[in-house]
């Protein structure tokens, strides 16, 4: 999270954690688990902060691999928002801006998932009874070219399954304003703009 990226070793020394993950946690976590299972030395795992011999050490993070970002997890358990089953998705990652209050840009360059992988995850969620999808991106709707296909998918699943959408994180007025009517028509019911407004409910 942002606190780890911002404070790194300073925060780790104050914590009771065995490890912190830096940068692309999707890659570092699996590498760390595999190393522990095999009994290997974790000092070879990129993107972690760890303790050894009463000292604190940091391995520089690895870049996010496109293939690992295309995968999505199976869901267990149910969460509800406005009495409807809600699931979370991430369709893009990273941010090109360098806002002082945010640590996202420290390691992650902006990238979008393929629309094919996004559609597969949405289909999976629809078949598992999700009624709302909340997008937890760092900079949603930043890629104007990619947005076109994404909005078509939103509309498709809204019409076919009645799925609606929220974005409670990582969305700016600059990204949203040019397409706001399109995404509302496609099924969005709530946005939480980073600046200057707070949460906006459509219905």
Ranges with pLDDT <50 over ≥5 residues? 196-200
Number of strands: 11
Number of helices: 8
The 3D shape can be described as globular
Class based on secondary structure composition and strand pairing = alpha/beta
Helix-strand string: HHEHEEHEEEEHEHEHHEE
Q: Widest sheet: strand order?
A: 4-5-8-9-10-11
Average pLDDT taken over every residue: 86
The first-to-last residue Cα distance is 31 Å
Profile the largest sheet. Answer: 6 strands, mixed
Share of residues in strands = 15-25%
Radius of gyration using CA atoms only: 19 Å
Question: Could you walk me through the main structural features you see in this protein, from its secondary elements to its overall organization?
Answer:
The protein is of the alpha/beta class. About 35% of the residues lie in helices and about 25% in strands. It is built from 8 helices and 11 strands. The chain has helices at about 1-5, 10-15, 25-40, 65-70, 115-125, 145-160, 175, 180-185; strands at about 20, 50, 55-60, 80, 85-90, 90-95, 110, 130-135, 165-170, 190-195, 200. The strands form 3 sheets. A 6-stranded mixed sheet has the order 4-5-8-9-10-11. The chain has a 3-stranded antiparallel sheet with strand order 1-2-3. Strands 6-7 form a two-stranded antiparallel ribbon. Helix 5 (about 115-125) runs parallel beside helix 6. The longest helix is centred in the last third of the chain and has 18 residues, at about 145-160. It is globular. Mean pLDDT is about 85; it is low at about 195-200.
